[in-house]
Amino acid sequence: MDYLVLEKQNKRVMIIGIIATFISMVIGIYTFVSKSEQTNDNEINIQINTLNSMSKNLKEMLDFVEIQKKKITNEQSILEGIQNQRKEIELLLNTDRQTVEAIMKAQKNNERKNVWIEWIIAFFLGISSSMAATLLYNKFIIKRKTFRETN
Q: How many percent of the chain have pLDDT more than 70?
């Protein structure tokens, strides 16, 4: 009988142990699942925040790229304008250079002609001045001789 009582008590203890084990497993599983859900919720929130942040950064990057594209396009148009002005100025300079060279050449030819004319004029002026000086000298000498002879 003692054996039967022990057996009944063992059965009760065993049933209580099984129930306690089952309850503790259910509590453990529930705790694990709730923590994993919280962890998953936290991880999902973190991932959502990270994705939102990345999305915002990408939008800012796209805005920056668009601004840079506009700046480059603007600078390119300015550069093209400057190059067009440079070509126009080069054409004018080449035209002006040719004109200036033609004028200088014509002036040089005129100077060559004028040099001969100047030399001829200078030659005749030299001869004329020599003749005038000779005439004046002779006139003064003759007056002097006549003045000496009269005195």
A: 84
